[in-house]
Amino acid sequence: MTLVYSFLFCGLVCLIGQIILDNTKLTPGHLLSGFVALGAVLGAFNIYDRIVYFVGAGANLPIISFGNVMVNSAYQGFLSRGFLGLIGNMLSAVSVGIVAAIICAFIMITFAKIKD
Questions:
Q1: Which domain holds residue 60?
Q2: Count of domains for the chain
Q3: 113: left (phi over 0), alpha (psi -120 to 50) or beta
Q4: How far apart are CA 108 and CA 116, in angstroms?
Q5: What is the DSSP letter of 109?
Q6: What gap in Å lies between CA 52 and CA 95, rounded to an integer?
């Protein structure tokens, strides 16, 4: 049943994003930033962790989880090392995903044809 909940949650996030893109003048960059900020706010108030508990691993797939992970890792850094830990630990949990995105983008650019 968790698989169904994960699928529905990811589908709902995509549906909301598509409705926003179709009915407003917002760009995908605006939507991306808004979803990350929404995940950060939900993570700060411990709401996103409840969603992850109910939905399962499917809640960790959408871009909303990026903001949640940044907030949680920054908070853990703050608890362990104070203010400098807050800044230093913020991107440590998502650094592997960022590097993977850069490498995948480089590979795709290498083999893609440039249109004039």
A1: 2-111
A2: 1
A3: beta
A4: 18
A5: H
A6: 21
